[in-house]
Specification:
mainly alpha, Tetracycline Repressor, domain 2
């Protein structure tokens, strides 16, 4: 309940606007109860970040199956990421806010590195098959995630429909930019 309230409050007010008092009010809990579970805003933010970062990555990569051609696999992951970004918008907003903040501790940075590592392993399959350019994994991941994030924003903020045409064109642009 506390974590859910934190995610919703950050989506509404940003990470800087998140306070333990606002969480207590949103949950109907007393301040003492909130502090029983989390000693500080930093502890709460890190707990929520690690939890939803892993959950989102697992949901996105649930489409990964062995023995699929790389381009099919990448397309599935790319679409899964867009769908996850749209369906779990508040969680992604929370992650985005935290990623560039001073709040994340070493354990959260380790989780961040591990979850990005899962995407890097997918890209490595394409490199091993000589299908993907030999470019730094972090740059490739940022590039692909950027395309996903912007398409998800088109859908969420501009009311575009996530239809086959948008998916096909968006993925074609992403694929053409990374393939050899």
């Amino acid at each position: 309940m506390i974590a859910d309230a934190a995610v919703k409050l950050v989506a509404r007010n940003g990470l800087a606007g998140l306070t333990m008092a606002a969480i207590a009010k949103a949950t109907g809990l007393g301040m003492g109860t909130v502090y029983t579970y989390f000693k500080s805003k930093e502890e709460l933010v890190n707990h929520v970040y690690r939890t939803i970062k892993v959950e989102n990555t697992n949901r996105i990569l649930a489409v990964v199956k062995d023995q699929e051609p790389f381009a099919v696999l990448l397309r599935k992951v790319w679409i899964s990421y867009i769908q996850n970004r749209i369906l779990f918008y508040e969680e992604h907003f929370f992650i985005d806010q935290c990623t560039n903040s001073h709040f994340l501790d070493a354990a959260s940075r380790k989780t961040e590195k591990e979850t990005y590592g899962a995407f890097h392993r997918v890209l490595q399959l394409g490199k091993d098959q000589l299908l993907v350019k030999e470019i730094d994994d972090a740059l490739l991941t940022a590039h692909l995630m950027g395309s996903v994030n912007e398409i998800a924003n088109l859908v969420r903020q501009q009311g575009r429909k996530l239809d086959a045409g948008l998916i096909d064109t968006g993925f074609a642009l992403a694929w053409d930019s990374i393939k050899r």
